Amino acid sequence: MSKAEPRLDEHTLAAYLSNGLSKDERAAVTAALVRDPEARELLKMALYALRAVDRPPVPLASIRHAEGRLSRRPGISGEEARSVDSQD
Questions:
Q1: Which percentage of the chain shows pLDDT scores above 90?
Q2: Helices (H), strands (E): how many in the chain?
Q3: Is 81 found in the same domain as 68?
């Protein structure tokens, strides 16, 4: 990462969010975020991703309940409902 223009990739933004950059690097990333709306959007998406990871897992009973409700809808079988979850 150069001092003039930091490379704002996922690794740099992760270090920025976790306070893993030096004072100078952090200042350079902050300045780049101020100038670049696309970089701010990338940081926003990274924050959303971190928040999603920090959430507690969904109880299995809730998943089974949702699958049951989906399987009762016309055009969606229980197997189709389960296959949506297994694609992740």
A1: 17
A2: 5, 0
A3: yes
Is the distance from CB of 20 to CB of 14 less than 8 angstroms? yes
Does residue 2 sit within a domain?
no
Compute how many other C-beta atoms are within 10 angstroms of the C-beta atom of residue 8.
20
Considering only residues 53 and 76, tell me which one the structure prediction assigns the higher pLDDT. Answer: 53
Q: Which amino acid is at 8?
A: L
pTM: 0.51
Report the alpha-carbon distance of residue 37 to residue 87 in Å, rounded.
32
Q: Is residue 28 part of a domain?
A: yes
Distance of CA 72 to the CA centre of its chain: 32
Roughly what angle, to the nearest 10 degrees, separates helices 78-86 and 60-71?
130
Rounded CA separation 60/41 (Å): 33
pLDDT of the residue at 52: 73
